[in-house]
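ARCHIVE CARD
Drawer: 12
Card no.: 0347
Subject: one protein chain, sequence and derived structure
Cross-reference: see card 0346
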Amino acid sequence: MKVDAVQHGEKKVYSVGAFNRGVATWLQRLPSVWVEGEVTELRRQVAWQSVFLTLKDPADGACLPVTMPRGQFDALRLELVDGERVHVLGRPELFEARGDFRLRALSIERFGLGDHLAALERLKTELGAEGLFAADRKRPLPLVPRRIGIVTGNDAAAKRDLLTTIATRFPPARIVVAETYVQGPRAAGAVIEALRALCGVPELDVIVVARGGGSFEDLLPFSDEGLVRAIAACKVPVVSAVGHEQDTPLCDLAADVRASTPTGAGKLVVPDREELVERIAGIRGRLGRSVAAGVERRRERVDQVHVRLRRAPALAVERKRATLEHAAGRLRTLSPRATLERGYAIVRDGSAIVRTPPEAGTRVDVEVAEGAFGARVE
């Protein structure tokens, strides 16, 4: 394609569009080439027609944007992640509308783990063997923390999202913010110092380490061995909210709880006030009903005891009366009177009962059922 210039005196001047078209046309003459680098900033969405990533040279940090049609990328089934080293076959091109230079990929081959990713895998294995990522050392978060510590960057979107979520869900929450570096070579040490400072704050019950999304390199400080150990050794529970859902720095594994986003972390560290009020009201109602039911049961028990107490004297008298009647019956049965009633008589010689025939002429007293009379023995 011929690119025309406009003559201004002795100068030939190209418009931006014409210049970009000319460069793009010239780049199309270049052959396809293989380029080696580490995958960073991999972006793929179902609705997008293309997949975007950046190739980074681990030696000097040089970067090259790469694009590839989504169908071709999916057909490769590479399941690439940030940090992997690959070989990309492509052609250089210029996006004329914006003047963006990029490599249009025709094929991608996995070359091996990148230097950073390999180092992280080794560190992950070592720390895992020490038990720093074990599930049994994870501590539960308090339901209503007295104070919440936040480690985040200055004027960061993560900070804004986290504070907004906490304030919306639980306005009475007391928050202590420690602003620090969250990117670059000084970030890991700065976050460690912020954690130590927050641990000295009275009544601090939980700490959130928050950082928004970024490239693989941006999040590397949060996989620093010193920071991972500091989080594991922190005396209060730590919530890690670093990067996005697909990002998993090592601090996520060492923290007591991982949140996919800073907003998610805000939902984890404080309850929703309205839901909490409803729960308390429900508990109060259940307690009231339980107390009322207990009082009613005790009232019924008291009534039953009262009835038994009122009936107790009459029952006691009745039992005594029955006992007396039984004794009287036995006495009547055993009484000599009962014997006399059957036609027998009692013979006395003076006061003694006659058991053997007395001498003739002896005077005796005879008692029968209807009375007594005297007699003389013949």
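Annotation on reverse: The radius of gyration is 51 Å. Residues 6-113 form a domain with the OB fold (Dihydrolipoamide Acetyltransferase, E2P) fold (CATH 2.40.50.140).
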